Predict the 3D structure of the following.
Amino acid sequence: MNLPTEDARGMARALTELLDTGRHALVASGSPLAARVADHVGCPLAEIPNVAEHLPSWDHANLQCGVDAYLARHSPDAAWFGIAGSRHFTPVVDMLTTADTNGQYRLGAVDYTTVATGPATAAEAVQLGLVCTAAPDGSPVVLAVQGAEEARGEDRCHLQVLAAERSTGAAVREEILTLAREHDVFRGQVLAFGASEHRGNRLLTFLPRPSMRADQVVLADGVLASIEHHVVRSAERTAALREHGQHLKRGLLLYGPPGTGKTHTVRYLLSRLPACTVFVLSGVAMIRWLRATAALARRLEPSVVVVEDVDLIAHDRSMTMSGNPALFELLDEMDGIGSEADVTFVLTTNRVDTMEEALAQRPGRVDLAVEIPKPDAACRERLLRLYGGPALRLPDASPLVAATDGVTASFVREWVRRAVLKSVTSGSGLDEPALRAALDELMSQQQALTRSMLGGRR
Ligand SMILES: Nc1ncnc2c1ncn2[C@@H]1O[C@H](COP(=O)(O)OP(=O)(O)OP(=O)(O)O)[C@@H](O)[C@H]1O
Ligand SMILES: [Mg+2]
């Protein structure tokens, strides 16, 4: 047997020490923060390739979901750590690389924030933190997550993957992003863009999904059914259309006077599409979110994009980013979404005339236009009975129905509400005299308003 000699043992020890010092010299760092990262990755910070993903601020919840799912899969016991001493928004990599030279950035606690995950739910997300984990191939990586800091002018959230090899970092990033899409918190939700309290900042908020029955929407016979047939489509029909190479994208325009039930109908449709992701856009400001909405609608298909009061942007002559008037921009976005995407646009307007020219110049975006007119006599009676409910004592509605020719559905609702108030105050029932009194009052108020608007009264 060849036992190692004292000399050989000494040499081996010396070699190990040398290697250790070398390795140490390679990754060692004066700052425990920088050392924690460099030691795990096994390479000096300056040599770590930059693999990052920058996402809009509203995607923070999804980024966190993706990272959480990744950690659960590859290192369920991993513990986050943080950076103390950050006063302004600084990318994590910059904080790490300067941690050695300036003592400002130190190993610290993880900074958390709250992100919405539904209309009434929220989750904790890492605002600034790092975690040591492993790549799919087992090599060591450190993940850094940084939320947006809108007050400091940073409107994106960030994922940084610190690995010795770029390809390793990229593989980790891809897996996290795939997991984020799989766990997307926006899927199947009703969402609206708006500005946060900080001027100009982007915010995607969750709205509760309306819950309505068909009998709550009073339209002429067959109208609601045809709208519903156009928009609400079973998954089987979608699959069949795809199979036969037919386009999926749809465009519905609801037009009619104010208060006739366009928004009401949209709300009903949304309650009939529980699995669809919905985006609600309104007002002139909505043009700013158009592009982001179209991208999200595609990502989260099947989806519905509701553009309320689209005539508002038809009047807006200001040019958009692509140099188009706003309405053309909308119509172009509708087209750009691609016919194979399962995205439905629902537009509402009470000024269809102002849109005719634009719609004619950009044909094919709207494949069903439905007028929602003022209610006819039969609809007025249905509205009266709907809003009066079981308390209504009105064997013959025809005199009141005849007296309300030309009013809108929302007028009927308000009329019944006043009659209910009167009947409660007087102790009488919700009967014809109560309705008659409320109607007289409402009509005379409305006439006074009309007169004063027309300048007929001082
Ligand atoms: N067809 C209808 N059936 C039942 N209720 C209706 C109907 N139309 C309107 N209403 C009632 O009136 C309210 C206002 O109507 P809605 O907001 O849908 O009007 P609109 O057509 O969207 O008007 P605008 O053009 O001003 O946006 C509804 O919330 C609903 O309570
Ligand atoms: Mg409306």
Notes: The pocket of magnesium ion (ligand 2) is lined by residues 262-263, 308, 348 (CB under 6 Å).
